[in-house]
């Protein structure tokens, strides 16, 4: 094998290894945030959303952990965006695959934004982002703002149904590497975790729906307010479910099958078009 070819292959293997490692770090970051939210509920009764969890971590020596979380969240977001753009996890141009890629793009954008807020916390001590109520108030001031909020509520309701569907059919097990995909305890951890997230998504969708119908931004809410709504007999079971979802994310960090973006194929297509 020519030395240049061997060097190129070695570089590709190293790149793939770094990409996979960083993406796994992203799954771990997501898992740690959900575990922290659940632990705060159980131990102190305090409710937080993902941004609040980032701010909770970002004090003193916790900034070093937050820097790792920011890197992981950013890479996880990029991995999702690569799926949307290149079909990394959902190749093909059928409507079903394109729909999944569109969802991946939305998820990727959310986690890139979370990474940005984590960096803001490191630099300024807080995320500096508007809360859900402020965002809803801004939207309601726009022409047709109620319809925008109703659309957001509908999207979240669909996302909640998707979480329940995953919990019912256990489709999340298909993405795990051989061995982990056959373990019953991992399956039930994922099922209960996705079910808890489904409940949260439904509550948030209801809050945004009420804000739109009543034209009151104060009724809108996020994960934190959803947990407040569930205070009482439902709070601890949902917190336990979020803890299980976070733990399942850690399992994914170790065992999920992660594909390298097909950048070489895209590069070849571009070169072919340029040379024509």
From TrEMBL:
Q: What is the lineage of its organism?
A: Bacteria, Pseudomonadati, Pseudomonadota, Alphaproteobacteria, Sphingomonadales
What are the protein's UniProt keywords? Membrane, Transmembrane, Transmembrane helix
Q: Membrane spanning segments where?
A: 21-42, 102-123, 147-165, 192-212, 232-251
Which is a Pfam family this sequence falls into?
A: DUF1206
InterPro entries from the UniProt entry: DUF1206
Protein name per its UniProtKB record:
DUF1206 domain-containing protein
Please state every residue range assigned to the domain named DUF1206: 25-85, 108-168, 192-256
């Amino acid at each position: 094998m020519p030395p240049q070819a061997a060097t190129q292959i070695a570089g590709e293997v190293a790149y793939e290894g770094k990409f996979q490692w960083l993406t796994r770090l992203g799954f771990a970051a997501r898992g740690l945030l959900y575990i922290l939210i659940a632990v705060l509920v159980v131990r102190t009764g305090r409710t937080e959303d993902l941004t609040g969890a980032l701010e909770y971590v970002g004090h003193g020596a916790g900034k070093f952990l937050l820097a790792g979380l920011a890197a992981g969240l950013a890479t996880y977001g990029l991995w999702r965006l690569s799926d949307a753009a290149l079909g990394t996890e959902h190749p093909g141009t059928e409507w079903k695959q394109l729909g999944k890629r569109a969802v991946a793009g939305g998820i990727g954008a959310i986690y890139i934004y979370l990474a940005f807020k984590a960096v803001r916390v490191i630099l300024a001590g807080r995320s500096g982002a508007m809360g859900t109520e402020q965002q809803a108030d801004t939207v309601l001031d726009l022409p047709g703002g109620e319809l925008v909020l109703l659309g957001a509520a509908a999207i979240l309701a669909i996302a909640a149904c998707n979480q329940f569907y995953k919990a019912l059919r256990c489709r999340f097990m298909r993405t795990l590497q051989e061995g982990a995909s056959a373990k019953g305890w991992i399956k039930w951890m994922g099922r209960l975790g996705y079910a808890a997230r489904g409940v949260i998504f439904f509550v948030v969708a209801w809050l945004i729906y009420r804000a739109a119908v009543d034209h009151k931004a104060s009724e809108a809410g996020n994960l934190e307010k959803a947990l407040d709504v569930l205070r009482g007999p439902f709070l601890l079971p949902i917190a336990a479910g979020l803890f299980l979802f976070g733990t399942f994310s850690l399992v994914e960090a170790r065992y999920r099958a992660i594909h390298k973006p097909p950048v070489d194929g895209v590069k070849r297509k571009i070169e072919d078009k340029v040379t024509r």
